[in-house]
Design brief:
The structure holds two protein chains of two kinds.
Chain A lengths: L3 E2 L4 E5 L4 E7 L6 E7 L6 E7 L4 E4 L2 E6 L4 E6 L8 E8 L6 E3 L3 E6 L1
Parallel strand pairs in A: 2-11
Antiparallel strand pairs in A: 1-3, 3-8, 4-5, 4-9, 6-7, 7-8, 9-10, 9-11
Chain B lengths: L4 E3 L2 E4 L5 E6 L6 E7 L5 E8 L2 E5 L7 E4 L6 E5 L8 E8 L8 E2 L3 E5 L1
Parallel strand pairs in B: 2-11
Antiparallel strand pairs in B: 1-3, 3-8, 4-5, 4-9, 5-6, 7-8, 9-10, 9-11
């Protein structure tokens, strides 16, 4: 299932700088997109979401951008902090009952 | 903060045995889900559950799998006859709303089938 893809398995960023995580999708029927964060030995934790009718959503240090024509979304974290080091999953959903399609995840490491 | 609780955290079983994975969703949530992640692969949807019945299930969720809400708090996933390929981290999740995607996940049960 390649409907949601995160092409970068890992990203390394210096503390205080911007982290940009990318995600591509193929299914134009997706209604909403989300980012989840996952620490080891924990389940995914909801971070931020965006509806398909918007192109930007902001929550504190986190901003998600959606480019529907390119079927691409990105998560910006500014400024990055060491505590942001985790696996970040892009996910997408449509009209199905709570069914999310996840990307493979990107391991973000923020160095002090 | 309310959380989804899963037990056990690890489960080891022999191939062909039945296992039951247990979950306590967040108390005011009405929608419940099971997802799984095989090592090195994506998190995959298995099933969603609402009003005491399955809302949707994936191709993975075949006749070997079943879900149940036996009482007002627990939500279980049963695998009747485990296979080696069922080895995975199983995540339970719950949500207030059906769409929007804001799911609250438990910490998972690592199932190892030998």
């Amino acid at each position: 299932d390649q409907q949601v893809k995160q092409n970068s398995p890992s990203l390394s960023v210096q503390e205080g700088r911007i982290s940009i995580l990318n995600c591509d999708y193929t299914n134009s029927m997706f209604d909403y997109f989300l980012w989840y964060k996952k620490y080891p030995a924990e389940g995914p934790t909801f971070l931020i979401s965006i509806s398909s009718i918007k192109d930007k959503n902001e929550d504190g240090r986190f901003t998600v951008f959606l480019n529907k024509s390119a079927k691409h979304l990105s998560l910006h974290i500014v400024p990055s902090q060491p505590g942001d080091s985790a696996v970040y999953f892009c996910a997408a959903g449509g009209t199905s009952y709570g069914k999310l399609t996840f990307g493979q995840g990107t391991i973000l490491t923020v160095h002090p | 903060e309310p959380e989804v609780t899963q037990t056990p955290s690890h489960q080891v079983t022999q191939m062909g045995q039945e296992v039951i994975l247990r979950c306590v969703p967040i108390s005011n949530h009405l929608y419940f889900y099971w997802y799984r992640q095989i090592l090195g692969q994506k998190v995959e949807f298995l099933v969603s559950f609402y009003n005491n019945e399955i809302s949707e299930k994936s191709e993975i969720f075949d006749d070997q799998f079943s879900v149940e809400r036996p009482d007002g708090s627990n939500f279980t996933l049963k695998i009747r006859s485990t296979k080696l390929e069922d080895s995975a981290m199983y995540f339970c999740a719950s949500s207030e709303a059906l769409t929007g995607g804001k799911l609250f996940f438990g910490s998972g049960t690592q199932l190892s089938v030998l």
